[in-house]
């Protein structure tokens, strides 16, 4: 590419077209902005500009006690609220050395997996939408509705569940809930063909995604990319298996870490799809296990003022979109001294600078969508 | 044949002036009503495909939705962006909308031989016809796309510019494929006049005689009207709105109108050229002679157009958008060569028939030639695959031969998938193992100590 620079004195300006994708653009799911320099329709450089949605979550954490933090923490990635809450309570429990009742552990695992399926279904629907296929998103939302009804029944929330508490869960499951959860999971699984065959089998869809936006393993490691995006490049890393938390250690035979070698958009979509299937299987396994557990408490009695002892810990979880970590530093106050948030999308989106140059504008949409990010998770 | 065509055309252009006005208004109204209906129909059908209900607020069954939308758009604020080239910017939607209607002037709604009577005047069911009617349709269709290109350019903005550029390339490549698919029809009908083309489909519709031309035309017509999966100039996911990003109010409405009228127009052309025009479909004509006379042809024509429009809607509801370069590839590397070869084939068959070869022998020649080409391509494919497989196998063997060195980068790393660690040297069997002396020369002392420990 030749770059011509024309101008007199200080007013020098490149003649290449600069295209601002966003902050308001249909394919950025919110307010991500990409500054692209175009040569025809080919992108010669790309720079993600983030922060339009920065809400200062980390600073706000410092002025909230541990019960209030849960409410804030489940908002940065609004599609995986349950898993976000989980990281905070795991960190605080670890600092306190608190043992969580077994019933709560299994219920948490179950809800985390249902949340994962919910999250993935969103992207399974929105990705074809970005490629111009309008219909799958509505089918994805029908499935989401099934699962959301179940989640709403147990927690009262459809997006921000607020169901985790330090030491367990808010309350036990309603009577008959497990049966309805099982039905919902079965219903969703029964209709996953829409994505397995109609979306993934579509010739145009495959042509748009195969070999597009190939991410290699070096870049993944260099940028700290995680989650299904990283696993699609053959990075075989999943905290649920490699550093089991909750009950994942006992679910090793059901848990399947989905990996692909290709690293292109299609592989990322396939990973997501297969992981959704696996999340449904895991949910079923958790339900089976919950049925065997004797009745018991699902939380601990907490003191009026909850203070984490002085010290620091890092709790990381395998969120639907990747590794989500909280670094908690406490000085023994009722609020954390510092609660650093490591969100998955933040790292995943940065890799765009490497992926986009050399691709077409149409590919840009395919790549952007296949990185499966939530802007709130990027901007925190 | 040529003389009958001239005779048939002589029926046109004899209407009194008021009848011409009535017919022109009818053409306009037909196009408008079909558009108004098809917008609601599209939204309904797509809604059903997407598990929704669709518009149901305005009028019974939401039928007046597009009317309400039109009124709403007209009443909206009309923004002219600062960087726009004002004259062209305002002209563009008009250039896009008007030619879309013009093609209807030569579309036959019924038989050409003065079958119907309007206020006592017998007249053909067609506004007019030209000896080059189909060329007129092609011409108006291309002019319409200028509107889109100019809109993209004059908006003085990035997204519309990209949309306009895409539209230019799309127009150039798909007009050719479309023209080539028409050429086969001309060869069969001996005419470019639309009424004559319909007349010559009395025995068999051209969709049966010229299936390849029909398929090429269907692909080209979807490309020509910027509809999904070829809606690249708009591409709301990539270019926001494409060429119409900066347009609002009535100007935007004009673009929407142009898009839908174009859909109706190309459907009408497809019906006329390939689907037997106003003729009743096969099973009806066998038991009802009157089906192709009087006002009835209007019904068959409308039904065929609606089916074609449903096809457009179906595509939109099910397919994702193609990428720009793939779309160009499809046009230049598939559609144009295929229609060229097909055209040659059709011409050869026509020539042979003119020389009085019987159909069986022609079919034999053509079938034989096609078979030979297919066989050749199969053989080529097999050999190419074999070559690739050999190359792959060699590459694999190459990779296998090179042993994995965990220390290559300076640090010990685990093997990546596909690599294997060099085999760990096997431990010697227990019996041969020698005891390692811990405290210098006294090797047996430690074992004794352990044994005493066990005794406790």
TrEMBL record, chain A:
PROSITE patterns attached to this UniProt entry: COMPLEX1_49K
EC annotation from Swiss-Prot or TrEMBL: 7.1.1.-
Domain of life from the UniProt record: Bacteria
InterPro entries (UniProt xref): NADH_Q_OxRdtase_suD, NADH_UbQ_OxRdtase_49kDa_CS, NDH1_su_D/H, NiFe-Hase_large
Enzyme class, UniProt record, top EC level: translocase
Quaternary structure annotation from Swiss-Prot or TrEMBL: NDH-1 is composed of 14 different subunits. Subunits NuoB, C, D, E, F, and G constitute the peripheral sector of the complex.
Similarity field: Belongs to the complex I 49 kDa subunit family.
HAMAP family attached to this UniProt entry: NDH1_NuoD
Protein name (record): NADH-quinone oxidoreductase subunit D
Organism: Streptantibioticus silvisoli
Automatic annotation (TrEMBL), chain B:
Subcellular location: Cell membrane; Membrane
GO molecular function: NADH dehydrogenase activity; oxidoreductase activity, acting on NAD(P)H, quinone or similar compound as acceptor; quinone binding
Pfam families xrefs: NADHdh
Membrane topology listed for this record: Multi-pass membrane protein
GO CC entries: plasma membrane
Transmembrane segments: 17-41, 87-110, 130-153, 174-193, 205-223, 260-278, 298-318, 330-350, 362-383
Ranges annotated as biased composition (Low complexity): 439-450
Keyword entries, A-Z: Cell membrane, Membrane, NAD, Oxidoreductase, Quinone, Translocase, Transmembrane, Transmembrane helix, Ubiquinone
GO process annotations (BP): aerobic respiration
Family: Belongs to the complex I subunit 1 family.
The protein's assembly and partners: NDH-1 is composed of 14 different subunits. Subunits NuoA, H, J, K, L, M, N constitute the membrane sector of the complex.
Protein name according to UniProt: NADH-quinone oxidoreductase subunit H
Organism in which the protein naturally occurs: Streptantibioticus silvisoli
Upper classification of the organism: Bacteria, Bacillati, Actinomycetota, Actinomycetes, Kitasatosporales
